Amino acid sequence: MGRWMGVELRIHAFFPLLAAVCLLLSGNSGVLRGLGLFLVLAFAVVVREAARLITAAWLGLRLRAVLLLPIGGLFAYANPESQEGSNKGIGQFALAFVGPLANALTAVVLAVALLGAAGPDLRLFEQPWISAAWLLRSLIWMQLGMAALHLLPAYPLDGGRLLRGNFARAHGLAPAGRAASGVGQLLALAAMIGGMLLQSPWLIIAGFFIMVGAQIEDQGVFFQSVVDTVHMREVMLTDFATLSPSDTLADALTRCIHSLQDDFPVVRGPQLVGIVSRQRIVDALRSDGNGYIQSVMSRAFQVARPEDTLGATIRRLNAGHGLTLIPVTESGRVVGIVSVQNLMSSMSLLAEQRRIEREDASE
Fold first, then answer.
1. 158 and 307 belong to one structural domain
2. Domain with 141 in it
3. Which residues of 13-45 are buried (b: 16+ CB within 10 A; e: fewer)?
4. pLDDT of res. 42
């Protein structure tokens, strides 16, 4: 959905599908009121995430993306420092409480304004509190419901994040993430069962999306635990082509034809001086004719060492604003490359190699 405050905004596929659920819950109230109920929920999420984004900026935390779910947003941080800052100290508590606080304050402001305008006709305390038939009343109670929901100790809700942070200080982030995600999934299951027993569709919906959020976070923790145990020497390509800054674009294009690489390190002697892509060479030849690699290569690049973890390298790729290749250097010399193009196949082969080694060791 574009960017806001430099952060990429994404919506989970289940979020727009919830509009269909709201239409079903609207009953005889009509399609427009069903869509209105969906917008009431979306507004509560927007209030919450806007407050959290502003707080993250105030704390100096760098975010890469926010994935929006009907229960709120999941943050993806741009660097490990921001990830750590969100899990300890004032950052942990500020991010945990600013969302519920923003929703609660918005509910109070709306209640005062709407009671002043509608008076007793608003019927604020009549049930159902959230329904398509009473959108103004739902506007208030949806904000309060979002605030109360995130006080539960179910990860990835705010209460669950605080629980994970306390557990992480004693046992480490990865075990804490797995434990908190497990607790979140159990509480989500309990909420769905409770919703069916109490015939509360909103409790079922909340439990379902807590389950979805917990599974997303659990997958992220698992992925992080894997990539932080893999080192660059294990997945880097050691058979690769390089270009020289004095090569002509026509000569470089000829070499590209005989290579599977999309990106090439540019070296002057043993020294890495830039990176150039196959597409950049073709575009320069089309627009300006033949020239030299030095004129089209990028001098903005990241490098890794053979002992660096894959997780650290992926974070460099994410911070590189579209960078698709990281040269691996040792003593100033390029000894390998890691690219998005080959990373998945290298990881798959590495996993197979480790499986075979485990089987051989057990025999």
1. no
2. 3-227
3. eebeebeebbbebbeebeeebbebbbebbbbbb
4. 87
